[in-house]
Write a structure and sequence with these properties.
Ergot_Alk_Oxidoreductase, about 40% helix, alpha/beta, Rossmann fold, NmrA-like, NAD(P)-bd_dom_sf, 9-stranded mixed sheet
Length: about 325
């Protein structure tokens, strides 16, 4: 999980410099320490929205990624880019020590692995890296339905993250997001080619959904609040939607008939394995989906409402894929 403590100047944290004149680690660390905000998970849908929102407001940020190539876009936008392995606690701490406020998004593990185990490992590394990091405030990305439990995917892992952050003593805001509209991105190909949107949910079942950009906007706003202003926040879209609504949105923008096609519950795990999930990952995803469908947790009465509708999201998705 972690490596032996070594002096900050000797830790192997890479910072992306220019192609012509790469900066030394020491120079980059000095530059990095001027960044107010650090974004963990900035190359994903939500993290990138947080980072972009802060840049749009003139803030100084460091984006943390494991892939230097993915960070080049952010360097061009004016951000400092730190390349580190989330499982290397000392690398993370070295980056954290260069900022004051931190957005935490636990990176998803590859579906071919035991995702719960891998994501728990990264949570432990993140929590350990916060010790002596100097971070003054945290905003952490979580999910609707976060709860204690085994083999329930993000619901259990992110609950453990929430609980762990609460024990650090660092002022923390938790941002629980609804079902990402971006989860439907993969359906674009089948909607376009076959007029089908595969779904594990009954087509008429409505659930809270949210566009990642709306989550990012809220996350950035929470980061900029006073240090001691914290709490548990929920964010979802303007209204709740069903798989049938997703199919209708695709049909509207594609100009063709599209239907939502349900996968029966008794073959969820088998179907997921056929799609490349490991046995453990498939079991966790199936159990998490069942909890969502059965709605065994309370939904918020007054969530923060994003402005991006499902139709607007799907329209932008289709146009970007043309």
């Amino acid at each position: 999980m972690s490596t032996p403590d070594i002096p900050l100047s000797q830790r192997h944290v890479s910072f992306v410099g220019t192609a012509l004149e790469p900066l030394s680690v020491i120079t980059q660390l000095a530059k990095h320490q001027n960044a107010m905000y650090i974004i963990l998970g900035a190359t994903g849908h939500v993290g990138s929205a947080v980072a972009q929102s802060l840049l749009d407001q003139g803030e100084s940020i460091t984006v943390l990624t494991h892939d230097a190539q993915k960070g080049q876009m952010w360097q061009q936008k004016g951000a400092t880019v730190a390349v580190a392995d989330v499982h290397d606690t000392n690398q993370l701490r070295a980056v954290f020590q260069g900022g004051k406020r931190l957005f935490v998004l636990n990176p998803p593990a590859p579906i071919t692995t035991n995702t719960v185990q891998e994501e728990r490992n990264s949570v432990r590394s993140i929590l350990a890296a916060l010790i002596d990091s100097g971070i003054e405030k945290i905003v952490a990305q979580s999910t609707y339905g976060a709860q204690p439990g085994e083999r329930i995917g993000d619901l259990g892992v992110l609950y453990e993250l929430e609980q762990g952050l609460g024990k650090t003593g660092i002022p923390t805001s938790i941002l629980r997001a609804a079902y990402y509209m971006s989860n439907w991105d993969i359906a674009l190909a089948t909607a376009r080619q076959a007029g089908r949107v595969p779904t594990l949910f009954p087509p008429a079942f409505k659930l809270p959904m949210v566009a990642p950009r709306d989550v990012g906007t809220v996350g950035a706003a929470l980061l900029r609040e006073p240090v001691q202003q914290t709490g548990l926040h929920y964010v979802e879209g303007p209204q709740r939607y069903s798989s049938a609504d997703v199919a209708a949105a695709f049909a509207d923008v594609l100009g063709k008939d599209v239907e939502a096609v349900e996968t029966p519950r008794d073959v969820w795990a088998t179907t997921l394995q056929q799609l490349g999930f490991s046995e453990q990952a498939a079991e966790s995803m199936a159990t998490m989906t069942g909890i969502t469908l059965d709605q065994t947790y309370e939904l918020p009465e007054a969530p923060i409402r994003g402005t991006i509708t499902l139709q607007a999201y799907i329209t932008a998705l289709v146009k970007s894929g043309q």
